[in-house]
Design brief:
The chain is α+β, with helices and mostly antiparallel strands. The protein is built from 8 helices and 5 strands, in the order H-H-H-E-E-H-H-H-H-E-E-H-E. Helix content is about 55%, strand content about 15%.
């Protein structure tokens, strides 16, 4: 068994934002392997987030981002379970980062479930038309890959986070979710650009 140093625990804590004891526990379980400990932390965070997903998130904040030229802006409602977390600096920063992300990435929907079935069917029809010259046995698979790519461009939770493209927006929210212990979710957003509202 590898020796877990205080330096390794601190390094892991800076990387994950988890508590010292949780970091040490994960590093012991991973036998000192930082990558393995990170994977364990992510898996546990996802499981805990799934358990919290059903809990009511009725507190939160509305964040505003106005671009420097005052010709575009975003409103985003980010929810959590308690006012305590809603006033937390990390939660406030997440709301600001999401508003900036929405301005830059221009998502159309919050989650895949929010996408109207008619819009998905229309995209599928378009993509099936684009792969009509491919062998029949792989057309559906190629079209599904194109639909998944369309979701990753159109759906906020599936988009690559503009501040760290190695993570999706979902990953960023789940990380804060794991650190706060609360269900955190984006309720809605509105993106405004001068001249586009007509």
């Amino acid at each position: 068994m590898a020796e877990i140093t205080a330096q390794a625990v601190n390094e892991f804590r800076k990387k994950t934002g988890l508590g010292l004891m949780e970091c040490k526990k994960l590093l012991v379980e991973a036998d000192g392997d930082l990558k393995k400990a990170e994977t364990l932390a992510k898996e546990r965070g996802l499981k805990q987030a799934e358990l919290r997903a059903g809990r009511a998130a009725k507190a939160g904040r509305v964040e505003v981002y106005i671009h420097h030229d005052a010709k575009s802006g975003v409103l985003v409602e980010l929810n959590c379970e308690t006012d305590f977390v809603a006033r937390n600096d990390e939660f406030k920063q997440l709301a600001k980062d999401l508003a900036l992300h929405i301005m830059a990435a221009n998502p159309l929907y919050v989650t895949r479930e929010d996408v109207p079935a008619a819009a998905v069917e229309e995209q599928k029809r378009i993509f099936m038309g684009q792969v009509a010259d491919k062998p029949a046995n792989i057309q559906e698979k190629i079209a599904q890959g194109k639909i998944d790519a369309w979701f990753s461009e159109s759906v906020l939770m599936d988009q690559k986070f503009v501040r760290d493209e190695a993570k999706s927006v979902r990953d960023v929210i789940l990380a804060v979710n794991a650190r706060t212990g609360e269900n955190i979710s984006v309720a809605r957003f509105a993106r405004f650009v001068v001249g586009e509202g007509r």
